[in-house]
Every structure is written in C-alpha cells, then in structure tokens.
Design brief:
This protein has 213 residues and is of the alpha/beta class. The protein has five helices and seven strands; from the N terminus they run ααβββββααβαβ. Strand 1 and strand 2 form a beta hairpin. One of its GO terms (molecular function) is structural constituent of ribosome.
Length: 213
Amino acid sequence: MFKSVLHMTKFPVLKGSVSADGRLTSLFTNLNVITSKNICTTITCCKEIRSQNEKVKVGRGSKYGLIEGETTVEALNINQQDLFPDADTPNRLFNGVPFKDLHIVNIKSSPNNTIFSFTDSKGLVIMTHTAGIEGFKNAKKGTNIAGQQAAITLASRILDYGVNMVRIRIQGIGAGRMSSIKGFQMAGLNVISITDATRVSWCPPRPRKQRRV
C-alpha cells in the first residue's frame, strides 16, 4: 500500500524503513524530496494538494460571484496581536477613541433586502438606509450589488457626519452580507471590528412535507 502511494522505488530512504508487516518503522529522514505529485488523497476527502506557486481557483457557477471592487478572500494571519477581543478590548484606544465609544453600523441582510442603521455607542439611531431607498426594486433589492451600493452611499453620509471609524454588527444570511462590508471599505470607512449577531434557533419549526407529484 505504501509502495503505491509514496512510490517507494523512487525514494530508497523510505523503502528501507518499511517493515515486513507494511508499517513505517522510522521517521522520514528526507522530507524535501516529497512533492504534491507524490502524495495521493482519497476520493471521499475531495481535497487537492496545491503547491505554493499554484493559484487558488475561484469557484465557478456561484450564484453571487465577485462584483466590481471585490477580490478573492484573503486569509487572516491569526498570529497577529489584538486580533481577538479580550477583557481590555472595551478600553482599547483607536485613534484616541475607546472601543466602547465607537459608533456602530447595524446591517440586517435578508434574502429580500439589506437594511442599514447607523447608531452611536449607546444604540441611538442617527441615520438609516436600505437597498430599496437606493433605487433597487423587487427582487433586485436582495442582491449583492444592491447591498454594496447602499453601503457606499451610507458610508459617504457617515464620513460627512464626521465619523471615520465604526464597528459593524451584521445579522442575517442574505446576499448582501459580505458585499455591504466591502462597500464600507471601498468608501474609505475604517472598520474596526465585525460582529456576527445572526440569530440561531435551537428549536426550529418542523419542515414541510415533501411535495408528491
């Protein structure tokens, strides 16, 4: 089994470390010779081992693909400091303003519309905006383009209000969920944190019976 997977004939170091019962008895002594072409994966995992020089493929046929101004998703560096909140986060200063005193942008993304509300740190609503007010009608209100355009318009109004740093609190799993956040960044608004407040039902209603034809 190991001979077919790792091509033992090409690697005498690994070939000599295989015992009679087919188990590896010693550690790999030379891992630099093993490449992604010499490692096989099972069909059940459906994973591809890509080298660092290969480009990551973007999913094709997606219902909500990339739109203007968007790029591929960038991986976060989890080794960065202050990436996750702790006990001192409310008192941490951002450009001289404590985190607990930052203004909040609430986003409610539903399949039919994307609703925005800009509030102060205590929750007092200052301004609101929706994709329907932006001019999109009917089913177009729930698209990612409508959410991004509405976010850009609201961000420009927030900048005119005199605020350039906000916290985002998002709720819902609509199409304008990620594009609206991208719209705030494109408009020049500095997003300090993103909080997912989507409600989860622990006792959902019973689904309907399957339709019989």
